[in-house]
Design a protein that fits this description.
- The structure is a homodimer.
- In chain A, about 40% of the residues lie in helices and about 15% in strands.
- The first copy, chain A, is α/β, with parallel strands linked by helices.
- Chain A has three domains: about 70 residues, Winged helix-like DNA-binding domain superfamily/Winged helix DNA-binding domain (Arc Repressor Mutant, subunit A, Orthogonal Bundle); about 140 residues, Aspartate Aminotransferase, domain 1 (Alpha-Beta Complex); about 240 residues, Type I PLP-dependent aspartate aminotransferase-like (Major domain) (Aspartate Aminotransferase, domain 2).
- In chain A, strand 7 and strand 8 form a beta hairpin.
- In chain A, helix 7 packs across helix 14 and helix 15 crosses helix 17.
- The termini of chain A are far apart.
- The interface between A and B is large, with 103 and 103 residues.
Chain lengths: ~475, ~475
Amino acid sequence: MNSFTSAEPVYLRLAAVLEGMIHNRTFSPGDRMPSVRDFSRQQRVSVPTALKAYVMLETRGLINARPKSGFFVRPRQADLLREPSDVTAAPKITEISATDPLDSVLSDHGNKKLVPLGAAIPNYSLLPAEKLARTMGAIARKLGSESIGYDMAPGSEMVRREIARRSLSWGCSLKAEDFIITIGGTEALALALRATSKPGDTVAIESPTYYGLVHMLRELSLNVLPVPMDGVNGIDVNALERAVKRTKVSACVLIPNFNNPTGALMPDENKQRVVEFLAKRNVPIIEDDIYGDLQHDGMRPHCLKKFDRDGNVLLCSSFSKSLAPGYRVGYIAPGRFYKRVMLLKKASTLANSSLPTLAVGEFLRDGGYDRYLRGLRATYKDQVARMREAIAETFPEGIGLSRPTGGFVLWVELPKKTDSIELFRQARAAGISIAPGPLFSAEGGFRNFIRLNCGEPWDARIERAIGILGHLVERLSNR
Amino acid sequence: MNSFTSAEPVYLRLAAVLEGMIHNRTFSPGDRMPSVRDFSRQQRVSVPTALKAYVMLETRGLINARPKSGFFVRPRQADLLREPSDVTAAPKITEISATDPLDSVLSDHGNKKLVPLGAAIPNYSLLPAEKLARTMGAIARKLGSESIGYDMAPGSEMVRREIARRSLSWGCSLKAEDFIITIGGTEALALALRATSKPGDTVAIESPTYYGLVHMLRELSLNVLPVPMDGVNGIDVNALERAVKRTKVSACVLIPNFNNPTGALMPDENKQRVVEFLAKRNVPIIEDDIYGDLQHDGMRPHCLKKFDRDGNVLLCSSFSKSLAPGYRVGYIAPGRFYKRVMLLKKASTLANSSLPTLAVGEFLRDGGYDRYLRGLRATYKDQVARMREAIAETFPEGIGLSRPTGGFVLWVELPKKTDSIELFRQARAAGISIAPGPLFSAEGGFRNFIRLNCGEPWDARIERAIGILGHLVERLSNR
């Protein structure tokens, strides 16, 4: 950074440092610069030397002095021009890198220029943002100075008890002490994997599976044993049993309820059989139940955890799909791995953000969650149904289309020859974000599949996007 | 959990499940039970069967029905009695387990019955809780439904730019793109270690060092190369150079500014020498600067990062010691390890809690932070000075006592024979939490040392606690 060996005068070096920070917009036009006095102290130079650097920047038109209020960054001439409209309108195309599948699809979600059919994120207007924020404010006022205090792992007892009460609807009867609050479902899964498996171990997963999981397994240097599944009943239990008998696995990760991406729902008898089989072989099950609360009709499906008699199931979930993605409130009930997961949680993040966690707990406690969920389920059901219809109307014949009974994603099998990575690129250039199939596979499979997010309220923009996608698929499948 | 093979009537099994959840207080006295209808659906039984279970619980006096509002848990007779006063007054003593040094000291901090001299946590009343909460509320109102949205890694550009601006006072000129926001300093350190080192590698650390780091190294299966330091100038640079020449290390973790626990401050020439030496040997430096903003007088010390020319320094810090521990806002500037740290962040927690992060950014932006820091530094300085005086007056002769020029902890060397673990136990029984020396060592060293937290405003309670500690030390050192 700063050079001590250089022979150039100190003020030149200081001016260059500030110029760099103005150029890269660490200090942007209109910003107040540090006072000359502060800057001289920070840089361990005299006030006249610091002032010389400032005067030099002023001479060069980068900053100007305002009487009694200091130096400010000047607007640059170039900033006063508007950008040509087609530059701002065209989304920047970046490659999906082989090492980071999350990058493009996740970061595209924040890009207002793209129709967000890629990441599985609900439209924020469907979620109770105002109510949660008000609740958080009320809690902060009640707690006073304690509101900036730690909520050390395992996290607020109130919140854990509220989650424990909900476990009745999962077919369980868990208690507050069974849970650890985590930074969303992501941390829950990561802790579960680290508690059960070490680098070089092999983990059985569904194929296809959640792309965040694929990414996580790679970062943890874990090998993957993909087990086929079908879009209705989930993992092929016979195939799983054969695979586990043949290959030593350290854990098995399952998304039994409204699987991501297929939407499959494992029947209770399959759940029980898998739990009992893997318990007998001492293979821990990591259950991702993040969509479990989002059935479209009827009863909330039960968890694998229901059939767990010896703490072999590590149940992971969060409120990111149903309440507040950005609050980062998830949980894990790690069974016999409780102690190990606690140690890892403390060595990874120590505590959750207190106020957002308490606000979610309060939302669960005041009874509003169930009423609210009923509305959300109906909305997701409707959005999924409309997208299914639109796809059926506009996509070429012969495609396959999932028929999920919960959650808000669709898994689409395109004609054999269609390259979904190429489709992803062309769709992105046309202003539409989608998730190509290979992201959901550790081996780059599902080349002719895509996943579509139905978390957005149905409107003409999405209708058009599906029309364009249909057209692109048609063209690509005939090449 | 639920049994499918049992021959007992279903309602008996259901009643037993609910009774268990009432007994363990998942449902507490006064709580409303799930409606009979909801419960029958959750359990996949008929309404009459569910009702039979409820009636049975009612007959046994566990719940009672209120017309038109459902069943409620009855207060138990035992709950109406007060606890004998000496039971509530006596803090529960638990052992510090060898595998989890964090447990006792950290969880004791929340225990109002103990004088909190153990964990290094400021008294929350010193921190701007109300202002931050109000700021968070204002941001939530402004963002509307976007307020529950993700702030995906690397985190808000505004917040990263505000931190980048502050880097001038560290002797650096970093830009927003150099930073990733993390879940407190804990996640920053954990990501830095995981990005540079793999299980089985050896990491050079200061001895003594922060106990959270000792815990983290153990959980990551990393070996430790402890390098001696002194309480004034920090790590012994000659010893570090010799050690690194002799032993292959994957990284070196340093707390150069107001070291925890010793309070040492590395002189700039030592900083430069260490950075240049380790860069030449390609050993990454993980710099923990969490106390850097808290000098008692004069200028903010510079960071190792200032001397970093090739991205070899991973700078880690947070606002947990200066603004809001429970908001969990930290950051890392990982230099040449940026890409790897980003991948690990996404695979560990994906995003930070948005609103607390933005509130901290706003606090930095509006210029209040510097003014506020001036007051906080004076407070910490005063509290440290008072505790030093009290120790000098009440502890036996011949002890050593650190003289920190920043931060808010004291490191005390007791007479050789004093066992600080035993002192910890006796102090705890007397209502005082302290941090015994062996927590700060990977090999259980520093048996006759303790660290004291000066984050609490000085008052008679602390004065008394120091008196009692002095007495206990006296007694233990004469055994």
